[in-house]
Design brief:
12 helices, mainly alpha, single chain
Length: about 325
């Protein structure tokens, strides 16, 4: 480790970066809940399911829904907190802390929808949060920051372009398949936002250093384009599943992608020992298992699939032939 060890005492920026990242997680939780409410309302008003992809008309209608606008403002505040944290702390420390948003969103959604977490869904949430926090513990001990070369940035941009092409092709193949599209939207958004976080870190550091060249401009353009594509996947994911399931995918996949980029391309994990790399792999597998399990056994997902008659919200149970209540109406 030596002089390259980065921790709370070696890098005082962590003392500011971690609280900012946690504040961003709170804003993300409330923002997701409000945006989910707005998407659900637009679907009902348009009479068209958006799970296979929101239409331009539905997207434009979102701008007229107060709940969606409020959620967007909160997500904007979350981004500001995230960027502030990235400006003073290593990427692979900041990103995993978003997992706190999963816990908050789960509590909010249970309160609003009336779908209390089951033992299986709680186990999945614990796996998600626990796996990600192992990343934080290891990253906080060994994460290092280095000046990035132009070649490294070009490599990240090329990988991002390839990933986007693969995701778009896969989306065209699965958008009509109900069984896999919810999980796909969640994973796709998480992957894209993992690259967005990396590019944001790069742009911030280059601007701070006064190094705004052509490659920095390309990174900024890619960042904005990635944010837009990821946002579309997120809004469509709200049509396919509850907000805490969407947040689960984002808070697990997003930091994992960012960590892998940091480790393999940016060199931020050059001092991680073998046991640390093994722990990264095990923690990652546990967290991904949590996301997949939550996607299959989330009580609201099961209820919506009509496998079990779970009543919605605070309304009393209704006969199977009647219309169920909806707290978002």
């Amino acid at each position: 480790m030596g002089d390259q060890l980065v921790g709370a005492f070696q890098n005082p920026g962590l003392l500011l970066g971690i609280p900012l990242a946690l504040a961003g997680a709170v804003f993300m939780s409330f923002g997701a809940q409000y945006q989910h409410r707005g998407v659900a309302k637009v679907e009902r008003l348009s009479g068209q399911d958006g799970a296979s992809g929101l239409t331009m008309k539905q997207l434009s209608r979102l701008l007229t829904r107060p709940s969606w606008v409020i959620g967007t403002i909160m997500l904007g505040l979350a981004i500001i907190c995230q960027l502030g944290a990235l400006a003073v702390a290593p990427l692979i420390v900041v990103q995993p802390l978003g997992a706190i948003a999963l816990v908050i969103t789960t509590l909010l959604n249970a309160r609003i929808s009336g779908h209390a977490p089951t033992r299986r869904s709680l186990a999945a949430i614990i796996a998600c949060v626990g796996g990600i926090f192992v990343f934080v513990a290891i990253a906080a001990m060994f994460a290092t920051e280095k000046n990035l070369s132009e070649r490294q940035l070009v490599t990240v941009l090329i990988i991002l372009a390839i990933v986007v092409v693969i995701l778009v092709v896969f989306w065209l193949l699965v958008r009509r398949r109900h069984q896999v599209r919810a999980l796909f939207y969640i994973l796709a958004a998480g992957i894209i936002y993992g690259f967005v976080a990396t590019l944001a870190k790069v742009v911030i550091k280059r601007v701070q250093a006064g190094d705004f060249e052509w490659v920095t401009l390309v990174c900024l353009i890619a960042l904005l384009a990635g944010t837009a594509l990821g946002a579309y996947f997120v809004q469509t994911a709200y049509s396919s599943g509850p907000p805490d399931l969407v947040i689960a995918g984002l808070t697990v996949i997003d930091p994992m992608v960012a960590v892998l980029i940091g480790l393999l391309v940016l060199g931020e994990g050059a001092n991680v020992p073998l046991w640390g790399l093994i722990a990264f792999g095990v923690a990652g597998a546990v967290a991904i298992w949590g996301v997949i399990t939550l996607a299959r056994y989330h009580p609201q997902v099961v209820s919506d699939s009509r496998e079990v008659p779970i009543p919605r919200g605070s309304e009393p149970p209704t006969p199977k032939t009647g219309a169920g209540g909806d707290p978002l109406a």
